[in-house]
Amino acid sequence: MTADFDFQCTICAKCCHDLRLPLTVSEALAWLERGNDVQILCDASPWLEEPPADNLQAAYRRRRTFATTSGTLPTRIAVILTATFAGPCPNLQPDNRCGIYDQRPLTCRIYPAEVNPFIELTPEHKACPPEAWTPGLPPLLRAGKLVDESVHATIQQSRALAESEVQAKQQLCGLLGIDHAAIWNEGFVAYSPACADLLTALRQLSNGIPTPPPSPAWHFVSNRRTTVEALSTVGASSSAAQANDTTHFEYLGFFPASE
Ligand code: SF4
Ligand code: SF4
User: Fold this and answer.
1) Is the pTM of this model over 0.85?
2) Residues of the chain whose pLDDT is less than 50?
3) b/e for 172-186, b at 16 or more Cβ within 10 A?
């Protein structure tokens, strides 16, 4: 049963620190134009056959990914643009207010609600302090539904953009030579292209300038030997994440490395 929650932001700014903040394509462009860093995170799912129509989670994943191959394995790739910063967000003001409040990313407008419909909103997984969740504050969630219609609409907007921007992100990867991904739910491969290169590529996409065909072949990366071997046995191109090797990309594993 889904709990009801009351909530009021305390302006503690904990949610504005140490982030990889998902951005839309236009938000990434604006973030870079303000002189801040953007990374590109990639994960991949083997996709041997189409899942049944009642598998809503697979359908959600499918809409947010593009089809390609890894070796001989049909695969779908998810690409996430993120504003990446350690410590405070570059837009955070000394009084904990957002310096780009009217232009802040959709992700910031939605927090602490969830974009992913398959992740339940739970206070313990949020940065907000306990007093932000005090019963009697304005209602946030009732019977699993967000009370604030504008937040609900923003979530819908975020989901729609994540789907409509899939092709642009595939083209972006082609322009930047990005073709490695972690396996879904095991981690991400994080690329940190030079800001000027990423800006040029995003402007090319935004202006509708034709791009070369995207990479037809992707490679899986994992820090777990069993994963690398399992992927190889089904025909995928897979390799071990090299510790400390961040020449081309960084491997962000959710699990400890295993031999
Ligand atoms: S853009 Fe604004 S709301 Fe979003 S993390 Fe930065 S300071 Fe916080
Ligand atoms: S962590 Fe929660 S309470 Fe603190 S500023 Fe962010 S949304 Fe508000």
Assistant:
1) yes
2) none
3) bbbbbebbbbbbbeb
